[in-house]
Amino acid sequence: MNRAFLALGSNIDPERNLPAAVRELARFGRIVRVSNVWESPPADDLDQPDFLNAAVLLETPLSADALWHRVIPEVEQALGRVRDPANKNASRTIDVDLSLFNRETLVIDDRRLPNPDLLSRAFVAVPLAELDAAYVHPQTGRTLAEIAASLSGAAGMRLRSDVVLATGAMAPTSAPPSSVC
Asked: From CA 129, how far away is CA 73, in angstroms rounded?
């Protein structure tokens, strides 16, 4: 089985779309863990609502290529994702990104894994660190916890405990990094 770390984001009805994305992803494997939900300002196109971000650890028999070409587009389409070719950072119902796959370094089409955004964007790094803080980035040698801690100080993120993706064994195993709260 493969371990796929998926980053989720939404700023159109995110309280409904993030949990729905987790349910959709569960059709393709076993959800091992989900992160907390974090609110953050938009990264590039500032004239839109804040985003809610989270992450999912999916155990799946599928390859990274199958996730990228089949599963992610299917999940995004099921949740009404519309891509604006003129503005790749426009508001969206859901954005699912394959951020890490096992401990591999891959290129799928023009997408690099590990996702380079993990090293520069707290809204990607913090939820991923909640899934497996000790995971060692295959290119930098730093743990996800170290990466998240280095980015979270000025991120403007806040925990959204009112939005729950899953309960029980799938919930985050640790409290969020104190430097983010």
From this structure: 25
Residue 129: what residue type? A
Catalytic entry in 3, 33, 92, 160: 92
95 carries an active-site annotation: yes
Q: Which of 97, 110, 112, 160 is catalytic?
A: 97
Q: What is the maximal distance between C-alpha atoms in the chain? A: 41
Burial 18-40 (b: 16+ CB within 10 A, else e): bbbbbebbeebbebbbbbbbbbb
- The low-confidence residues of the chain, meaning pLDDT below 70, are 45-46, 152-155, 167-181
Residue 42 and residue 141 in contact, taking contact as beta carbons nearer than 8 Å: no
CA dist 76 and 68 (Å) reads 11
Query: How do strand 95-101 and strand 38-40 relate by DSSP bridges?
Result: unpaired
Number of H helices, E strands in the chain: 5, 8
Q: What is the pLDDT of residue 121?
A: 93
